[in-house]
UniProtKB/TrEMBL annotation:
Residues 85-254 form the FAD/NAD(P)-binding domain. It comes from the Bacteria. Pfam families: FAD-depend_C (PF21688), Pyr_redox_2 (PF07992). This is NAD(P)/FAD-dependent oxidoreductase. It comes from Flavobacterium jumunjinense. Residues 270-466 form the FAD-dependent protein C-terminal domain.
Amino acid sequence: MPRELQFQVSPEVANNEILLVNFVAKLLQISVKEIQKVVVLKRSIDARQKSIKFNIKANVFLVDEPFFESIIELPDYPNVENAQEVVVVGAGPAGLFAALQLIELGLKPIVLERGKDVRGRRRDLKAINVDHIVNEDSNYCFGEGGAGTYSDGKLYTRSKKRGDVDRILQLLVGFGASDEILVEAHPHIGTNKLPQIIQDIREKIIACGGKVLFDTKVTDILIKNTEVDGVVLQDGSIINSKKIILATGHSARDIFELLDRKDIYIEAKPFALGVRAEHPQELIDKIQYSCDFRGDFLPPAPYSIVKQVAGRGMYSFCMCPGGVIAPCATSPGEVVTNGWSPSKRDQVTANSGIVVELRLEDFKPFEKFGALAGMEFQKSIEQKAWQLAGETQKVPAQKMVDFTQKKVSSSIPKTSYVPGTTAVELGEVFPDFLTNTMREGFAQFDKSMRGYFTNDAILHAPESRTSSPVRIPRDPISLEHVKIKGLYPCGEGAGYAGGIISAAIDGEKCALKIKESLN
């Protein structure tokens, strides 16, 4: 049996297999020749002390112990071409992993995606970045792979209780992700690598007899006697089905409006909203690692901050070390920001959403919209930001200290946000309670990260799509909608996930419940 060890090593040792084996031999007081293999199970950085260390959990195999390289293999997916069909609306992580699980269970998924495939999406992303043209069905939020495909590919989740995180990570490795995601404490695929993985998942679904239809927008859900009967597509055609997984993402406002219009019960849900702050990565490294230069063996430093400000949570969200800020509007007449990093995280800037928790009472000015009050609140801020920045995809921007002093920045340096910025007093974008919370909060952030509060940081507004502003209630046992049989609200858009991993887990759970209901 291998020995399981936990220890700390320097960054140089952690990144060099020979040095790591030498360290382990010394730790065990044995010869290097007696060690067959050191298999790292988990790895994380401990930057709390001046001397930065890597925490390592590893199995050590000696020369006389059996050792086999572990190979991640995909499940033996059956052919489901002639099996019972299940409609899956949305090809984000919830929809795609629901489809894979359906196939594994012997059911045929029909995946309907309003946007384009990963390759086709690129033209529309260029259009929004360069020409300021927003395609309502193909953008950073809509299209194959959903919002995660071109917005970072973070795989870290706190949702351990929701399901088997390791299973999702292993499936991603099976579809081409680096096996390092099984080891790292905060795994990340990278926007440059995720599209190929998403494409391979789609090809597997099709090879097994499932269907994936792009440019296929659902405009209605057919219901007979409180049970789903199918969906109506934009071209008027109908796909009949008694089982529908609704995995449309947190930005599918037309779906929320459809459900509200059809009196399919939904409810407003609190979410968080704020700005996206961009710092030089070198500054974040200096703060986090307490050094002038991080060296060759440390990755670009991330950060995570949570503060209570005037009774509200204010925190970093979707932090992207070595990353860029992207335009994520889904309709003309609005601006939205998000962030992503390539796999190497090698950009010179770091960015993070800095957001404030909202409450249902904050949506009172929009109460006439009922369950859509939060969505309308969100929309109003995005539209105001668009107007103030010049009615293009430029975003309102302000230096951080200037923001707290209510001073329009005299100039905004070029940032990673390609469409550009317009100097605006951001207090004009947000309601007073949000503005005041953020102004106080940024000064508090500096108490945790000395040097964070600086005019070298540029605030871009708004960061508004942190999670769904609507919840589609479902039965906690069957996972069906509380009123409509056969409808399975799923993933981020329904209010049951918050990222790639938790959305994928939720998609699998819905697929399992469908199979259970058919037995």
